[in-house]
Batch of 3 targets.
Target 1
Amino acid sequence: MELHITALLGQHGEEDTWTFGPLVGKSPAMRGVFALIAKLASSSATVLISGESGTGKELVARAIHTLSPRAAHSFVPVNCAAIPEELLESELFGHVRGAFTGAINARQGRFQLAHGGTLFLDEVGEMSAKLQAKLLRVLQEQEFEPIGSDKAVHVDVRVVAATNRDLRLATKEGRFREDLFYRLNVLPVELPPLRERPEDIALLTAYFLQRHSRKKGRAVEKVEKEALALLEGYSWPGNVRELENLLERLVILNEDGVIRVRDLPDYVCQSFAGQKDNALFPAIHLPPEGVDLDRLLQEIENTLILQALSRTRGNKTLAAELLCLNRTTLVERLRKRGLEPVRPVLTPLPSSAVRRMTAGDCSLTA
């Protein structure tokens, strides 16, 4: 069906119950993440967020901080992969005047700036062995010496780290300290890639289109069903960040408030076409002994009929539409083959932990 933005998000641009602050999703995987965030936020133990690039790791870290008793204090992010190794130590721990060439003045590090609050170490797997050892000491002792100083500085900081690497494998290969991994991995949070939660794509699409329409002063209000099917069928290697960037581009280029197939880039359309060719029959081989073709085709047909009834919660009219059949034809086949109609299955309500925390104009990427 077509995606109408206001119908999904509300007449006044308010998201429905599938939001958790800046995080959006209605899939079981994301509802599980929301519930986990609500449980671990009150603790001061370290958190390790893992997930592919673009899945929203920093947003999860901010959500944890916002729900925690430390919310009144600072949330300080550091991208360990973006800062050269020789500068990262000073960024984290600070330095005293004259500690090295160019250290004209003393400088506080991010640990001191985050005192009482939360320090977010993004891409912690990129940290050098030297800094890993110093980080381990801070986590254990809650104190460190700035570069060039022999006086320990005590800090009260909760560390939330994130990585898109497999740190278990890195420890086995000697690229990451095993003791540091276990010290960081007290409370693990794993974010699913977008391709594993396609039921969230329509909701994210509506959210981003509305958000960027407001920012750009545009009025994109609808996505045609064919275009939505292409978006839901694409694998999104860049995850939520890639989806947001594409939708921002579509808002800028749109002229009539409707997103159509012709507006989508070729790589999205071509990817869907390749999946469609193999969707129903990915690998069919004739066995040496042959097959009973009539029986096999009937089994396939029965399976698809039952799946259609299950998807439509037993509604024969909607199931017939999915199968491109007349309703009377479907009913007759059910009667002749003795196929029992599927009882409706109610979708569970979201966890009570799912609630709003921050303003709705926050980006959904990390």
Target 2
Amino acid sequence: MDGAAPLAAPDYDWILEADTRAFVETSLRNSKVEGEPTAASRRAAYDANCRFWHNGRPEGVAVENLSCEGPRGPIPLRRYVPASGPGAAFVLYLHGGGFVVGGLDSHDDICAEIAHRTGYETVSVDYRMAPEFQHPAFFEDAFAAWEWAVEAAAGRPIVISGDSAGGTLAAAVVHASRGLRGAPAGQVLIYPSLGGDPTRGSYVLHADAPLLSRADRAFYASQRDMSLVPEDDPRAWPLRDPDFSNLPMTVCINAQCDPLSDDGKAYRDRILGVGGRAFSVEEPGLTHGFLRARHASRQAGLAFDRIVESLRALGAGERPKL
């Protein structure tokens, strides 16, 4: 409202439980970059933090590196098959990292656990990133990976998922694949960035939240040539698609202490507004990037349980028990 007092910054020391605060503090130390950050220095720091929190792969999960063809060359993939076999559904996972950092290794243990706990074959995608590549390269790789998955799934339903920037890409693929053979049967978006209004709501209240500060967002934006991203392009901003009809069942898992928190809720509301099926959960006392804390934070562990249940349920054509 015009003339209203600015929102007071939340007291995160009070909101976050002790184990989550410890995760945040350790992650900040692990990810510290000296001097002016670059893509290379941020990648090195991000990878170091991911290695620190890597929990290993569950016993019996078979892992294979492979690739599929994309419009700009081969796209590296990593396949995880649970000990029980490929299962009745197929999960395609797109990692987060602001379109700048992350890859197959950063989310290796996360995808291995998803495969183990859902019982579904899971494939992670190493799409091209900024600054070396620009829009729509990220989307093109994600869409090509989905096209490959349609054949690899061999008739099994595909559930597409991703965190942060990967959530952007997962939703973008879902919008672009409507009506096509093998279109995803469901999507699970984890603290996704979907193109919400950066001047309102959680973007303002949690502007400097732990693990995704204003400076972090500015850095990631600086690595992308935003002049190449049309304001209404749903491949970059799924929330700005004028058509929300005929989307599959959707689950958005958001973190309370995250500037992106409102994006998942707004996305759910757009789907419900046209009679679709969508759910949104705001995980209390958690920050952006909580996936890595699932074995270190009680609340992050509970949130990961909901993510796994959502993937399992959507793969089985069921309503998730949230």
Target 3
Amino acid sequence: MKSHTILILILFTFFASAAWPQAQPQWKHKIITYEVPGAGNGAGQDTQAFGINSSGEVAGFYTDANNVYHGFLRSPKAQP
């Protein structure tokens, strides 16, 4: 009798967890990596993004091969 109760409890737990609705992510995030054309690739020369707005535009800066800083604004419609 006791083993039947344990078996029923295990089966109930299995079926209850299988029937429970699974949480679905609300957002489908996509990570895009890119380098700004003209950005240097030496030490300390890279691309840095520092902001994104509600339209998905990314603002940032990059350092070129002459260690000169430049700003950029990347549209989400731009090709990666």
